[in-house]
Amino acid sequence: xxxxxxxxxxxxxxxxxxxxxxxxxxxxxxxxxxxxxxxxxxxxxxxxxxxxxxxxxxxxxxxxxxxxxxxxxxxxxxxxxxxxxxxxxxxxxxxxxxxxxxxxxxxxxxxxxxxxxxxxxxxxxxxxxxxxxxxxx
Length: 137
Description:
Strand content: under 5%
Order of helices and strands: HEEHHH
Helix content: 55-70%
């Protein structure tokens, strides 16, 4: 399934998260590796070097899975979507505490929740095992 929704989302989100991870280093000069407050990416999203590395790893996993195939992309989209859902919710409680080692801020929480909805929606809602498609006429 070359044009599967999971592959497309995996490749697109993977490329975006890789770019975000790289761009994050441009705003984190002088920011501690696990600082609870970071530089602002695009003037809104707080990041620190650990957060940038997380974006690079997540982007790489999504991109590679999207390239490998629909099944791999479905699994990775679902797992990362679930992790982002958890992070999006927990982020509201971590901000302003010493446990905020990713320097999360409110825009980050909403972006993580939005990413979770897309990744989980595609991962859980498409390419179901055993689903049949009508034959083209």
